[in-house]
Each structure stands twice: as C-alpha cells, then as structure tokens.
Design brief:
Strand content: 35-45%
CATH class of the largest domain: Alpha Beta
Number of domains: 2
CATH superfamily of the largest domain: Ribosomal protein L6
CATH architecture of the largest domain: Alpha-Beta Complex
Shape: elongated
Order of helices and strands: EEEEEEHEEEEEEHEHH
Structural class: alpha+beta
Number of strands: 13
Oligomer: single chain
Largest sheet: 4 strands, antiparallel
C-alpha cells in the first residue's frame, strides 16, 4: 500500500468537495479547482474525509495511487490558503516592476521582458523579490520556472533570477583555474 496514497485527506469546514464519476471538484474561499482521475483509482467521500483507493497492485496503478492523493490534497490546500513561490533578482541594475498585472523584468538584455500572468496567477514585487501566487500548485510552479528561465543564475558571478533560498554552485574564474596567471609564470618572454 502506498504510504502517501493511503492517508485520508481531511476537508476543512470552508471547503466543499464533489465527486462526479471520474472527476472531482474542490471549492473554497479562494476559488475552485477540478481534475479527473484514472479508472483504476477510486476516490470516495466519507465523513468529511476524501479516501483514495486503487483497483490492483500493478506498478503503474500503485504510482497513480499516491499521485492522485497528492493532487487532491494540493487542490484542497490551494483553494483554502493558496500557493506562492518567491524569486529574487541578483545583479547590478536588475529590476522587476509591475505594469498593470504583467511583470516587467530588466535583467541585462537590450529590452525589458514582459511576463503576462495566466488566469488565477498574480505577481507581487517588493525590492528585488518577486512573489508568484495562485491556487493551482502546478501552475504557480510552472510560471515561477518560466520567470527563472528568462535569466537563470550563472555560475561565475551568481547573477540572474533564482528561487529564494536556492544555492547556486559557483565556479572559479579562468585565471584561478589554470594557476599560470595567478603565479606569474607561464608563457615565453
């Protein structure tokens, strides 16, 4: 039995869950989300809990068991509290600003980069930190990854867009790597 899949999902008082055949709808104070699940997975609503069961023990169905439970739990938490990802800008002259609901990034290119938020996603900018918020966990993560992809952190100076708390492995520069320039030896005279 899947350790994740067998855990029941408790439903808070302000959240409603409705199961119609192979689809599930979760409504809460922040909005509503819906998804469908595979035919080998059974989702049941019992006494304020959502239970996820599987039909057999084949490896692909076992994998879907935990996945389905995690997706439903993320939906419940998303409509109740929401999800956020924070990114930070590192680099001289790197700036982010909001233009209406769009995010304007000035990150060393000859032109600013505009990122339009899809429905359900909002941006908040404070100094050099960008916060991506929404109720759909996968969409929040994807939009944050797309923003990071505009200027990923480079390993020599560490400049770029990174997640808050992300550790960027730094490389030594060319002179320190060869040793010849640092010691003064090397080439012909």
């Amino acid at each position: 039995m899947s350790r994740i899949g067998k855990l029941p999902i408790s439903i808070p008082a302000s959240v409603t869950v409705r199961i119609d055949g192979r689809s599930i709808l979760v409504k809460g104070p922040k909005g509503e989300l819906s998804t469908t699940f595979r035919p080998n997975i059974e989702v049941a609503l019992e006494e304020g809990l959502v239970l996820v069961r599987r039909a057999n023990d084949t490896p692909d169905v076992r994998a879907l068991h935990g996945l389905t439970r995690a997706l439903i739990a993320n939906m419940v938490r998303g409509v109740l509290d929401g999800w956020t990802k924070e990114l930070e800008l590192q680099g001289v002259g790197y700036r982010a600003a909001l233009e209406g609901s769009a995010l304007r990034l000035s990150v060393g290119y000859s032109h600013p980069v505009l990122v339009q938020p899809p429905d359900g996603i909002s941006f908040h900018v404070q100094e050099n930190t960008i916060r991506v918020s929404g109720i759909d966990r996968s969409l929040v993560g994807q939009i944050a990854a797309n923003i990071r992809k505009v200027r990923p952190p480079e390993p020599y100076k560490g400049k770029g867009i990174r997640y808050v708390g992300e550790v960027v492995r730094r490389k030594v520069g060319k002179a320190a790597a060869t040793g010849a320039a640092a010691t003064g030896g090397g080439g012909k005279k």
